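Re-run requested by the PI after the first attempt was lost when the workstation crashed. Everything re-entered from the original request form. Ligand of interest: manganese (II) ion.
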Amino acid sequence: MSQLRGRALLLASAIGDMIATRSVRHPGARDTHPSKRDTSNPGPDNPVLLTQFPSSVAPPQTDKGHVPNLWFPFSQAHRRIQHGGWSREVTVKDFVAAKEIAGVNMRLTPGGVRELHWHLAAEWAFMLTGSAQITAVDQHGRRFVDNVGPGDLWYFPAGIPHSIQGLEPAGCEFILAFDDGNFSEFDTFTISDWAGHTPKEVLAKNFGVDAVAFADVPREQLYIFQGKIVAAQPTQIGAPGVVPQSFSFRLGAKQPDYQTASGSVRIADSHNFPVSTTIAAALVEVEPGGLRELHWHPNADEWQFWISGQARMTVFAAGGRARTFDFHAGDVGTVPRAMGHYIENTGNEAVRYLELFRADEFAEVPLTAWAAHTPHDLVAQHLNIDPALLDKLPDRKQPVVPA
Ligand code: MN
Ligand code: MN
């Protein structure tokens, strides 16, 4: 950068400070000078929430303007509790910013069954604890059975019928994500619901048996029920009568796609999990003090489920707007497409969370890569920094910056 240009920037910055100072001294104007910020809070407040949301109570001074709420906890979602398990959902009806993906958190006891059903949206899932057996049959009558455990995924394409059953000894808990923010898990096509609303003579004719066979068909749908464990043999992908592409994937067990001293990223999208054409996913771990680097996603909104630890995320929404959100295990977050963001681990343990996108592939633009691959003298003039600093940027992508 020329000396002249550098001086001009400094002068512009000084003028900016003068204008800012003058404006805060104007009668009635809000004083935003750091040393004059009034943080007293004598009125009523919720003490539990105060401790959970330090970034809202005392926002960083770089936060400004209106950025919509990008956080919602499963803890606040209504729990539908039945014999055999429970479920709760976070859809766009409650979480307005999450338009592309709806989430469900479900628990099944050993033997608990999420009954045979299908739905319009595609279903992506991540196992949190325990073990389950999943089944599906595709449109060509090809079957699929697998047993899944913590860190495993499944994906059922839209309209493909499936079931989930918790196994011994502890059942299971998992997260479901649907490629439609409006999707409701409480409004699916279930086998018992259909049978209960079909005349028994029609059922008899359809299955070619006597109507008495259906005397005890449930009148209302089961949704989740306590059943007996059916330990079917998992199918071998590609075997006769079996689906050609697996509906499950061992995400937690695979080698990280990116690993640094401060964390890792494991990706599952249609490149390595071909059936998952509408959901791309990353399992991210950030160690204490670590930073998920400044970046954005060009192809979809980001939908997050926070698995463990605690963190804060700052989102840059253009137009001088930025807002920081605090996250804890069990929370859902979202980042609208193209908004810049970064995540910091604020706790004493590793933070683990999922980044999901309604897309066929995981795509991001890191600020570091952008700066590293643009003429350094050009970038340096924008940030008023020494171009030599840019020459030292890492050549490889580092989604979690090594601390
Ligand atoms: Mn389903
Ligand atoms: Mn992101």
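Saved to the shared folder this time. Residues 117, 119, 123, 162 surround manganese (II) ion (ligand 1) (CB under 6 Å).
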